[in-house]
Write a structure and sequence with these properties.
It is a single chain. This protein has about 140 residues and is mainly alpha-helical. It has helices at about 5-10, 15-25, 75-85, 95-100, 105-120; strands at about 40, 50, 60. Strands 1-2-3 form a three-stranded antiparallel β-sheet, with no helix packed on it. Helix 4 packs across helix 5 (about 105-120).
Length: about 140
Amino acid sequence: MSLTDLQRRFPDGAAAEQWIAECRWGGEPCCPHCDETDVQIGATHPSQPYRCRSCRKFFCVRTGTAMAGSNLGYQVWAMAAHLITTEANSQASMRLHQDLGISQTAAWFLAHRLREAWEDGQPRFGSPRGGQAQDGEFAI
C-alpha cells in the first residue's frame, strides 16, 4: 500500500477510528473491562462514546490498547502502524516525526507503544475475542 493509498483509506480521524473499531470488535463493540457485548453506542460522555450496560463503565476504541492515554489522533496511529510494519528495518522515531508531522517525543512514544504491544504477543488491538488483522492489513 502506497502512502497515497494510505491517505485515501484514512482521510481523517473518524475513518481511522471506524477502521480500528471494526478490526478490534468486528462490528459489535465489546467492553474491555468485563468482556460483555451489551454496549450502549453513542453515550453522552464527550470522549468515550461507548458504555457497558453490565459494568456501567464508559470506554472508547483506545481503551485497553497501546493507544490508551495518548492524545495522538486515530489517523496518526493508523499511519504509524503502517509505516512501522512496512519498513524493512525498524522505523526510527525521527523518521516518524518527519513523516507524520508530530514531535519527535510523540513519535518515540508512539513507536515504543506499538513495538511493545506487538512483542507481548497480545492480539493486535487488545480484543478480548482475539481479533486479528485480515491478510494484507496491518493492525495496532
